[in-house]
Amino acid sequence: IGKIKIKHKTLGPVKQRQEEVTRILDTYKIKYELIDISVSLKILQEMRTKVSTPRALPPQIFNGQEYCGDFEMFHKAKENKEILKFLKME
Hints:
By secondary structure, this protein is α+β, with helices and mostly antiparallel strands. The protein has a single domain (4-86), classed as 3-Layer(aba) Sandwich (Glutaredoxin). It has helices at residues 14-27, 41-50, 71-79, 83-86, and strands at residues 4-8, 32-36, 60-63, 66-70. One of its GO terms (cellular component) is cytoplasm.
């Protein structure tokens, strides 16, 4: 299993979504790494390439190099109590 990585942005309305993701991961005691896409255009472009969406917005969630999904998909997994499945941890 790889390390959970969250591509995020530190400012703006996206921050609330990022905070919800990290709060849920903390609740499940899942270790993660936050990667701020606002520090480098290269990181933003890499994220968008990996998710195959040229206008993808953070947060985008990965398990290692494997893409898990975006905030909406994460939120749906939370509602269905399928966080570990979403994160590809089971």
